[in-house]
Amino acid sequence: VIDLTTVATPARPLRASSIPKFMRCPLNVILSYEADDQPGVAADTGSAVHYAAAVFHKNAKSLRDALKAMRGQASLYPFADLDVAEEHFRGYAEDPRQAAGEVVLCEHKVQVVLDPADEDPTRQPVVINGTLDQIRRKDGVLRLWDIKTGAADGPTMLTDYAYQLAAYQVGATALLGEPVLSAGVIRTKGYLKKRGNPDPIFWEAAWTLEGARRMLRHVVREVANVRAGRVRLTPGPQCHWCPAQGIGSCVSL
Ligand code: SF4
User: Fold this and answer.
1) The pTM is what?
2) Alpha-carbon torsion 24, 28, 29, 35, what sign?
3) Which of 1, 21, 27, 251 most suits a substitution to test ligand 1, by most atoms within 8 Å of the C-beta?
């Protein structure tokens, strides 16, 4: 187990993708702090779709080139089901809404640096790192979009990943020096539905940029608790994928 006073410091930033889990049960994330996301078919298939989408937007919006690049880089996502990834991506690339508008940032690293909470014993800034999928400008407004390939419905995705999206939204605002006014997910599973009855693809969250900043204040307070040695332990569905391997083990840590 790591030194708790170093959590979310510049030396050991918090990953944006791990914040939802951190806010459900901080101990879960602390136990797997240095580990990469677990590879697997679903995660790697998602990575392949992300790869194709990045090539698509960076290289002249060509479906054929993006698919060729995705298959050519299979070693980056060794567990991916590339046929399923291709299905997701074909739907994405053939949707005229994906090629419309300006993609201002694509697969871009962001860092969020926040003032610590008053009760934080370390007084160190809270640092969050991540890679956002896309910032698009439409009708003069910047929006964050995160590609999700999972099976959950759109509203569930928005709640499950709210903290992650908020971190990207705030990070991109600082990076661009211009407000990113909204955040949302592009749910590519919707493209797999039979033609003529597609699921909605774009799911935009209801919160504002100020709302995203408020969400991150909750993260800052949770980090202060952890740094002070008050590590919350919250049983829930996340226990099934926790390195503690169940509530029975973690209560005795
Ligand atoms: S087993 Fe459950 S309660 Fe225990 S640390 Fe893991 S996620 Fe938290």
Assistant:
1) 0.93
2) negative
3) 27
